[in-house]
Amino acid sequence: MNIIKRILAGAGILAGLSLASCDLTTESQSTFAEPSVFSDPTLTEYQIYSIYEVFGHTNSHRGRYLPWYGYNTDIEWYISNTMDDKADIVRYNMISTNSQLNVADGPYNELFAGIERANLTIDGIREYGDPQSRPEMAALLGEALTMRAVLYAELLKAYGEVPARFAPVTPETIYLNKSDRDDIYKQLLADLEEAIPYLSYNVATTDRVSRAFAAGMYARLALMASGYALRPDKGTVGTGNAGSVRLSDDPELSKAALYPKALEYLKDVISASGLELEPDYETLWKSVNEMDLTAGHEIIWVIPFSNSRGRWNYTFAIRNNGYTDYSPTTSNRGGQAGPVPYVYYWYGENDSRRDISCVNYEWEDRGNGTLPYPAGIANWYFGKYRFEWMTTHPYGGGNDDGVKPVYMRYADILLMAAELANCSGDENGSVTRDESYAKECLRTVLRRAYRDHEADADAIVDALSGEENIFEEIKKQRALEFVGEFLRKADLIRWNCLKSSLDGASEELVTMRDKGTGPVTGFNYAGLGTYLWYRHGTVDGIPSIEMYGIHNGETAATDVIAPEGSGWVPYTNSDGEPSRYFYYENGKGAFISSDTGFDKAVNGFYDEETNPDAKQWWPIPQTTITNAQGSLYNDYGY
């Protein structure tokens, strides 16, 4: 059959789970028949582009998956107080008819459409491309195998158990029920083992996969497969079973089986890839906003949106209120989610990541030009994403911005390697532990974080000893390194601490409100001011803001006495009077909205009636269940 028709037919079948009038068996005489395509490297490469293309579809990663997957966690949360279908997604209160995701062309079906394209490519190369004797075709096979693993990883992160589709759709396989995730993990890990030697470390751009990325995906999937997850009871997948949080009982997916191999792959990346950390954390994130896709540095792979596609900064950049110099639209842009307020205080005082990752201001034009203003203590934003840093391709104010979300970078390779090397195994088997290697990987990440204060980093690492002690530091550093990159939810799930971490975050916020010592950060919030003063300046030609009262030791900030120096302005309420920044006059926390009564400090992460550990995954959308004609069922009590 004509390969273009098969791409469209397969994608359409999976999106609607219904046959129209497509003949899946009729041969075509087109010059684009499979033997012609998959014996030609250029035409095969075009087919691989079609796999990447699904990420940009309107309701795929572009507008549904990425804006909603990955929070609330203990470090990232939804900022809006409005309780609607959007809030239900992040607050672990999903239903299969949620209006945001219950669409035929939503992320679930789009990801399977991409998998169908990958399956067609893999089968075509194996049959017609002679990858065993043609290295260029082997490389393309490795790329297709890796991209299929990415698409499945996204499904597993969001939906839990899903159908296993590792061959092109046929009339007999249109309707499939879910498969045990263990079977999918084993296939993906085997695929990546095959793909890694086919691929090269030397690639020109980070929107195409490399050997380093495939190795990183192997490690990421190995950590997921061997970790905890909400799983249906054995033998009940696809029956509606509520399941429980547990480890796999498959010995092939134990830490003993997977960790040594995953660590060796990462050690090869570290020693042979030529990748390195960007020395300056701010420069790293400026390059992301400038859409610099040059490979060979820290960024390994990005979601390959076109320069006019995707809603990353549109959703997550520092908030721009109405029309500004950086967001030329009358609508608010950015700031849908942000760091949980205490995260700023979890960083060390000399950690260069802090003021890049967490900012407490937003942009607005109040008649005197675009300037940053204090956002309120509950509204912190991801400073990694800034419209004002979009210099190469300025944001034009529409529904898409073109920024390519970072999917994997070298810091993740180092921290995964640290976690793998530090582990001695679990009840399913032991692993030879290498504490020294784990600490050196941690040291590399921390010395970049404490640039110009490397002795601070060395002191942190040198004080570590023992598996649990080092593991807790790895957990902390994954939070501080990757806040706003939405790796945390999958980490908390596999570590079996999703709900407990959310509850700990709520407790920290209550302590922050009451100016006590935080149980998570150990930070004494009594060292912060009651009121806030701010003043404007300029950095690299861009207006800037300096705030006093928000940092440790700035307790002199009062409503009548300004800090030393000139130009300070007090933060005021709607009546123009100096306003308490951390708590109201009645002693209630500033995290409480007087309009809705929604107390973010106490219950800002999930609904009271919900147990996040029992709702780790999204349900398969009802429109897909209905169109599956009785062959597909939701689990986990949905």
What layout of secondary structure does this protein have?
Layout: H1 3-16, H2 34-38, H3 41-53, H4 61-68, E1 76-78, H5 85-90, H6 107-129, H7 135-159, H8 181-198, H9 211-225, E2 229-231, E3 244-246, H10 255-272, H11 281-289, E4 299-302, H12 312-316, E5 320-321, E6 337-339, H13 354-357, E7 358-359, E8 361-365, E9 370-374, E10 381-382, E11 406-409, H14 410-422, E12 425-426, E13 429-430, H15 435-449, H16 454-462, H17 467-482, H18 488-494, H19 498-513, E14 533-539, E15 542-548, E16 569-570, H20 600-603, H21 622-627
Parallel strand pairs: 5-8
Antiparallel strand pairs: 1-6, 2-3, 4-11, 7-10, 8-9, 12-13, 14-15, 14-16
Describe the structure.
There is one protein chain. With 638 residues, the chain is mainly α. It has helices at residues 3-16, 34-38, 41-53, 61-68, 85-90, 107-129, 135-159, 181-198, 211-225, 255-272, 281-289, 312-316, 354-357, 410-422, 435-449, 454-462, 467-482, 488-494, 498-513, 600-603, 622-627; strands at 76-78, 229-231, 244-246, 299-302, 320-321, 337-339, 358-359, 361-365, 370-374, 381-382, 406-409, 425-426, 429-430, 533-539, 542-548, 569-570. A hairpin with a 4-residue loop joins β8 (361-365) and β9 (370-374). α6 (107-129) runs antiparallel to α7 (135-159), α9 (211-225) packs antiparallel against α10 and α14 (410-422) packs antiparallel against α15.
